[in-house]
Amino acid sequence: MTTKSGFAIIDWNKTVDVCSDITCQCGEGMHHCTHENTSAQHARCPYCKKVTRLHDRVELFADEKDANNHVADPSTFVQWKGTSIFMRVHCPCQHQFDVEDIMFAYHVDCPACHQTLHSAWHITGTVLSEEESKAVAVIHEPED
Length: 144
Hints:
Elements: E1 4-10, E2 17-23, E3 29-34, E4 42-44, E5 51-54, E6 57-61, H1 64-69, E7 76-90, E8 96-104, E9 107-109, E10 116-119, E11 122-123, E12 125-127, H2 130-134
Antiparallel strand pairs: 1-6, 1-7, 2-3, 2-7, 4-5, 5-12, 6-10, 7-8, 7-11, 9-10
């Protein structure tokens, strides 16, 4: 049985580099890599032009296999290698700590209880309405 061990909240305002593969509501996939001065949280589908907002919650697991098998719906696969991500981790021991500018966010170690927590490979996203999309200041425009 899969049991979540904790969770982390990504601070998209401080996150600079992250790559993900987003499956849009239209069924098409897009590769979403961001760097400084581009939005890590919002991406426009090059096919249907709808904007997806990536959620900020990452599920954490004690067992690496559970983290690898966790699939969110709608599916956004996050490539943790080479990221420059900022997130606040909520450990099952009740300790909270910040992870800043980590390059390999496959897992984090709690400084209080020393438990290793493995990051899920998938997070959820929401397709925004046209009105909501207009309110977003920066939208990443992946190439098709």
